[in-house]
Design goal:
GO terms for molecular function: L-cystine transmembrane transporter activity; symporter activity. Keywords: Amino-acid transport, Membrane, Transmembrane, Transmembrane helix, Transport. Its main location: membrane. InterPro entries: Na-dicarboxylate_symporter, Na:dicarbo_symporter_sf. This protein has a single domain, classed as Orthogonal Bundle (Proton glutamate symport protein). It is built from 21 helices and no strands. The chain has helices spanning about 1-25, 30-50, 55-95, 100-130, 140-160, 165-170, 175-180, 185-205, 210-235, 235-250, 255-260, 260-285, 290-305, 315-325, 330-335, 345-360, 370-380, 390-405, 410-415, 420-445, 450.
Amino acid sequence: MTTSFILLLLAVFLGIIYGFYYLQKKHVKFSTRVFAALIVGIVFGVVIQLSFGIDSKVTTTAVDWINIVGNGYVGLLQMLIMPLVFVSIVGAFTRLEANKQLGKISFTVLATLLGTTAISALVGIVSVFAFNLQGAEFAKGAAETARIAELAERQGMVDGVTIPQQILSFLPKNIFADLAGTRATSTIAVVIFSAFVGVAYLGIKRKAPEEAAFFAKLIDSLYKIVMRIVTLVLRLTPYGIVALMTKVTATSNYEAIVNLGKFVLASYVALIVVFIIHLVMLAFAKVNPLTYIKKAFPVLSFAFTSRSSAGALPLNIETQRKAFGVDDASANFSASFGLSIGQNGCAGVYPAMLAAIVAPTVGIDVFSPTYILTIIAVVTISSFGVAGVGGGATFASLIVLGSLNLPVAIVGLVISVEPLIDMARTAVNVSDSMLAGILTSRRINELDESVLNDEEAVVSSSI
């Protein structure tokens, strides 16, 4: 009977996949298909868990097969990350009409990413106070014990690493190794290398305009090819989301979520507050928050289900350019830098919350304004180089807790609810990078109002 149930679930899943293929053929809006995939995935996953349980062979085997679609889709997007980062940043330099804009773009993007990270850290700390989580104790089971042992090994990798040494790790020592993603800081290393190539292009443009023009055409051709691949992969988004959401809801430990419900609730409240802050900042920039939510929904929903800021990079850039009218340079810089710098959820809210929770257990007065400012400063500085893939929040937390001389065991104690919280964290990360792009484009007067205010101007227009 077990095999029969597995085959039945897979048959239902294939039917769902065909349903979304039918909707695509009928030219149903991309955003509508994404939203439908989110809902269908949740329902299907809940039905699987309620029918067979979280640990049954039926559930684990069926989800393993379904995961081919979900993880396969994320893998295809991750395949594009390094090529897209490179051609996007270098292409931004080749398309700059005035070199003086480069300074404004870089400063505004970085200031937005780091400034909102500092605010996010403060929001996380306040959330801990509001829910009275400081000094809280969490249950430790077999999974948590194993996670703590694993973290002890990872902690050894960051122990004794000073901030200057951390900064040095960002530099590309072997660009081919970094293009292959062999280091935790490979993404930011590729960003830095791409920026060097772009600056070199600007120098050649002044001294050898013919060679520079040839290089610009080459990069433009590469950019178009990469973006065409992006479009082909993005067409798979509804299929990927329904598979990812099915896995999440079918394998989530709801009992653990209830046991850690207060922590989960505090985390979501903090992340929602940060998202509202994004909307307020957009309102000050004369961008309608409701328009932003509507147009950003496809990329935010993908980030939510995939838990990968890096995987959302192609959709992020396309959304900024085609839905919000952000200029190419600002969109490419903000999305690329946002992968490794100033992630509001993973590198802002989360490590700040853990630091505020665990500090009282070692006799520290977490209500001290000086200590609060210390947490915010350490969190902001440590947000450099956080990988935009699963595990980035853990890496950031280890660095922050280690820098503050706090025990890291708490990171392992919340493992059972980590996926649930990570979904919202990732969506907030992506929102912040889009916020940086919009604000930057507005500052340099390159934001296309006709695209921004056109309700039909959405990323689905080409998918």
